[in-house]
Structure formats: C-alpha cells, structure tokens
Write a structure and sequence with these properties.
Helix content is 15%, strand content 33%. The protein is of the alpha+beta class. Helix 6 packs antiparallel against helix 8.
C-alpha cells in the first residue's frame, strides 16, 4: 500500500525523487521513488536515532553486503547505496505483489501443489543465501513476497554470517518468535539449519493458515518450539514427512535447503504427489487491492517454470490500486471476529501504523494485541488496574497504555519498556500521538481536576497543559501537529488548544446539546474539519468554528466515529436495543461526506440480551481497507468485529 509523503519526509534521497511511502521497519522508512530515468525504485532510509548508533550502521552495512553477495536472480536487485551518508540509505528495484501472510488471510490456505512450489522456490532462495555463508534469521510469512515470477524472501536487515553471534549484545534474541528455531529462542549460535526450521513453519502456515507453534503468549510460543511437537493440522503424506524433518528440534536432524529443494522440485521424488493437485481457491482471479511491499533486501526465486496462476492469485503488473472483481465488491464483508476472552471488556481500539496488528484496552485490567491476518491474540497483559487507553508509537514498535501511568510495551514480545509518566492521583483515560511521534497527548481524569498534558516522549517532560471539567473522553492531534482537540463528558463542547502553549483556541458547540459518554473527537485527514460524536456526528469548520453538518442514522445515540483514511467517508456507531425497530443488527453506518448520506450499513453479531448492545470504539486500518469495532453488551463481555471494505 502506497501512502503519501508526510511532513518532514525528504523530497529526494541522492539522485532519487520520492513519490510516496511503501512501509516502515525497525531500521527505517521505505519510500517509493523514481530514478533519474524514471524507473520505479524502493528507497530505504535509516532512522535518525539509529544513524547515531555505530552498531546500527554496522548492521545496515551488513544488509548492503548481504544483498551484493546473494545478487542476481535471488534478490530485489540492489541498485545503489550510501552506508556512510549522514542518514544511510539504499535503493533496490521494488517487488510488486502481496506477502504470503496477506494471500493466506484474503484467500485462505494454499493447495498442496501451491505449497510445494512455494517451498521449492523459497528453498532455492535460502540455498543461494546459505552458499554465501549467510543466515537470514527472520524467515516468516510477512517476509515472503508472492511476486509474479515466484516467491521472494525479503528483509536482510538481520542477516548474519553463519559463524556469527546470534544476538545483538546482552543476549537479545533477533527474529520473530513464532517462526524461530529452538536454538534461536535460546539465543544460541545460529546456522543455516535454523532457516530450514523457519521455512518448515512458514510452509505449515501456508498450508493450514496457522503456525505450528502458535500460542497466545510469547512464553507459550517459546515452550512449544522448545518442548512440544509441531501442530500440522490435517497435512498428510510426503509433505507432512518433509515438514516434520524441517521442524526437528535438533539442527543436525534437519535437511539442508538444497535437500528441501530436491524433494519439492518437479523432477524430485515428491513430484508425483502434487502434479495433479488442485490450485488454491481464488487462483487466477485478481486480488482486490495490489500491495507493494519491501521490508528490506529480497532473496529467493521460483524453482519451477510453471504459470504463476498455479501458485497464487495473479497480481497486476502495473498500477497502484485495483478494484475488486465485478460482483464481489467486498463492501461491508465480515472479515473476522476476534475473541477478547471470557472476561474481555474492550472499550478502545488502535491499529498499528502498518495495519498488521490491532490493540485493545478496556476496564478488565488487560491490554491485548491481535494479529489481523491470522486472528490470533499475540499477547494479553493483565494486572495494571484498568487500562482505558491504548495507542501505538508512530514507528509501530512500541505500544503505549493508560491507567495509573503511561506505560510502554514492546509490540513483538509484550515485554515492558518502562513507564513514561506516572499519575498516582489521576487515571490516564485517553492518548494520542503527534504526527511526528515526538509528543503524546495524555488525557487525565481525577476527582478534582481533569486535564490534558502534552508530554515529550523522549524526556517525559510536560510541554503544555490545559484543563477540563469531568472525565476526559478523547484527545486528537491535528494533522500538522499544531493543535489538540479534546472532549470531556461534562462540557457540551469540543475544545481546540495550542499543542505548544496550552492556549485555548476555540470551542465547538451545537444547539442540540452536550457531547455524551464515550464521545470522541477527531480531525479530518486534511485538518479542515473537526468531528465530534454525541447524539449525532457533528462536523465543524476548524478555521471558523461553524457547524457544517450533523450526521444521524437509526441509532438514538452515536458514541463513536472515525474518519476513513483515503476516502471522503466517516463511520459512526452507537447503542441499540435488540429487537428495537430498525436498529436490529445495524452496528455501524458509513456516511459519504459529499452528500451527508449513509451509503453503507455494516452488520455484526448482536447479543441476545434485552440489555441491548453498544459499540464504544471504532478504528480503521491505515489504508482504510478494514474497520474494527469493539462490540458487546453494556457492562458485559465484548468481542472485536472486523469488516473488509472495498
């Protein structure tokens, strides 16, 4: 998914003009760019904080050298690089196509023939990497691009010499736990056999839709990898036998990547098992949305000269976005229902910047993180009083939660990264990051004085403070980061403040009455309009304070709203009574802002209790393709409903 350049992004890196954002990783930002001749390229720019770290510079140089060593057919071709620049960068040809993670999420598990061909292509790529004396160390479904000419293994950001150390220092494990080998989770020296173990896990995911060692917590995953046999679903025959060999606990018992290739190739001993197999459901039809992803430097190749249609749904060779096939628009299509657990009381949701994970906070003392593509709960952190607020850092690496303090969590492991600020006499009820990620708006509710503090994320110092009466319900930064909008439940207004000085700029009111409980305020993507949810969704002109529209539907109260990224649309949801006229099952409405009319109604599973239902939180994925809603009975257990939008 290509997103526009943001304020602060460079217009040019070296001789390459930048056209948009492709994604972000732990080391830096990846841009879509153009070479001097107009050729489309991917430009990876290392982050400022990492550029100051000699160890990160060494890692970046290693990534460049890894790409140069593997080279040619197995890589996203390295075109240019400057590891010694003030902010180091590299340029490659970009790879069009979705990740394996996305293909499985949107089309389901692959058929046996497709799994075999995927395994052969990936094994050939790994064999090429291993011949150069390198180990990838982070092979996972999100690092396999399903390109038109075969699979590509991407992201050499943590590639390392085979005889190198397995950690970054201090015993820190590198990689993604769910697909690590037993020796890697123990932070022991890595070898090519570790990549083969990861390949086995990836192929199980491709064939079944879930990993062989899935668990709800990182310790649970580590235990299963180290001590339990893999879950292989209904896999049978030669493919099952090969995967069992790849997933052997002892590295010495695993085949090499070359051995895997020989067993999967069309001329190998397993060829007869797959030549008549059925292609995966949906093969030969275009995906609804073309995704351009580049996590780093790619490596892999297709092993068999067969039409791509037998491997995965064909991707258009050019063009930034494609519509869904005729007759299958996917508007309002239920995508998944995420379980919040027996005691789940989720009242606030937040998507990660890359759209791959969803965080939920609520009043049952638990912070949760789900993987969107698999529907699995990545972790659940309990025990810190109520957790009524949650948000991601702008780089997606850290999760911030509210309660009696602003706490930081590693999104990959769920481990604590400490407390940013502590508030013994107040509760942090809402959070919002500035667009540049440098400051955090913290909504505080206490008995005698509720307020908003704008906090420097690096130092924890309060930059500005502004006060309210009542419980703080919502805070939001304007797109330029200059102002903050806030709402409390006792003030019949949405207020706009200077983010630098705390000065009140304007109050937005309406004759219909106050902004009610669970109310939210948000800026339109262009920053010209401010929306507040209450009896209806009110839209004000930011520059003048003029009320321009009030959006209503069949709900008597609209508690929450969210702008849809990239579209002139807004979603709203509220409370309803089961069996109460036309509110039955109509959970969420989407308004076209050009007409002010409801154009789409999304239905969800409604509770059967006479207490009715409520939707306290809505969140769009950054690309606007998925809408998440926290749903449930008032005061009862909740779940998360996801819809796929065209």
């Amino acid at each position: 998914m290509i997103s526009p350049l943001q304020p602060g992004d460079p217009a040019r890196i070296g001789p390459y003009l930048l056209d948009g954002r492709l994604g972000a990783g732990g080391m830096g930002q990846v841009y879509l760019g153009s070479s001097p001749s107009g050729r489309a390229v991917a430009v990876k720019l290392i982050k400022t904080e990492h550029a100051r770290d000699p160890r990160f510079r060494e890692r970046f140089s290693r990534e460049v050298e890894a790409a140069r060593q593997v080279g040619g057919f197995h890589t996203a071709q390295l075109l240019d690089a400057d590891p010694d620049a003030e902010l180091p960068w590299l340029v490659t040809a970009f790879i069009p196509g979705p990740t394996l993670q996305r293909v499985v999420a949107e089309h389901g598990p692959l058929a046996p023939a497709a799994v075999a061909r995927l395994g052969a292509g990936s094994a050939e790529g790994l064999a090429a990497i291993h011949r150069c004396g390198l180990v990838h160390r982070d092979l996972k479904p999100g690092n396999v691009i399903m390109a038109d000419d075969g699979p590509r293994i991407i992201d050499f950001g943590i590639a390392h010499a085979e005889d190198g150390d397995s950690t970054t220092g201090g015993g820190a494990v590198i990689g993604t736990y769910a697909y690590m080998s037993p020796e890697q989770v123990r932070a022991e020296p890595v070898s090519a056999a570790g990549d083969v173990f990861s390949l086995g896990s990836v192929l199980v995911f491709a064939a079944t839709g879930r990993g062989p060692f899935d668990a709800t917590t990182v310790p649970g995953i580590v235990h299963r990898i180290s001590s339990e046999p893999p879950w292989l679903g209904g896999l049978e025959g030669e493919l099952r036998a090969l995967l069992i060999a790849c997933l052997a606990k002892d590295p010495a018992d695993r085949p090499s990547a070359a051995d895997v290739l020989n067993r999967l190739a069309v001329t190998g001993p397993m060829a007869h098992a797959f030549v008549d197999a059925t292609a995966p459901a949906g093969a030969g039809t275009p995906l609804g949305r073309r995704t351009l992803l580049l996590g780093g430097i790619g490596a892999a190749a297709t092993a068999i000269a067969v039409p791509t249609v037998l491997l995965w749904p064909k991707i258009a060779s050019h063009g930034r976005t494609r519509s869904a096939p005729a007759g299958n628009s996917g508007v309002g299509k239920p995508l998944a229902r995420l379980d919040a657990g027996d005691t789940g009381d989720v009242t606030q949701l937040a998507f990660s910047p890359d759209g791959r994970t969803l965080a939920g906070a609520g009043l049952d003392r638990t912070l949760r993180l789900w993987d969107i593509t698999s529907g699995r709960m990545v972790f659940a952190i309990a025990g810190h009083l109520n957790v009524p607020a949650v948000t991601f850092s702008t780089d997606g690496q850290t999760l911030f939660s509210g309660g009696n303090a602003v706490r930081r969590w590693d999104v990959h492991t769920g481990e604590s990264r400490g407390v940013l600020v502590s508030h013994a006499q107040a509760t942090v009820t809402c959070l919002a990051f500035s667009p540049d990620g440098k400051t955090l708006a913290v909504g505080l509710t206490s008995r005698d004085h509720s307020r908003v503090e704008v906090v420097d994320v690096t130092t924890g110092r309060t930059v500005a403070t502004f006060g309210h009466n009542g419980n703080m319900n919502s805070v939001a930064f304007s797109p330029d980061g200059e102002t903050v909008a806030s709402v409390s439940d006792m003030e019949a207004a949405v207020r706009l403040w200077s983010a630098k000085t705390g000065r009140l700029i304007r109050s937005f009111t309406a004759p219909m009455g106050g902004i009610l409980d669970y109310a939210s305020a948000m800026f339109s993507p262009d920053g010209k309009t401010l929306a507040g949810a209450g009896p209806g969704i009110r839209l004000w002109e930011v520059a003048t304070g003029r009320l321009t529209a009030t959006l209503t539907d069949s709900h008597h109260i609209l508690d929450t709203a969210a702008y849809r990224p990239g579209r002139a649309m807004i979603a709203g949801a509220g409370r309803g009574r089961v069996g109460a006229g036309d509110t039955i099952g109509k959970a969420v409405s989407l308004w076209d802002l050009s007409s002010g009319r409801v154009t789409t109604t999304l239905t969800g599973v409604m509770p059967t209790s006479s207490a009715g239902y409520e939707v306290p939180s809505l969140a769009f994925s950054p690309d606007g393709g998925i809408l998440a809603a926290a749903m449930g009975e008032p005061g009862g257990a909740r779940w998360i409903q996801l819809w796929k939008l065209s």
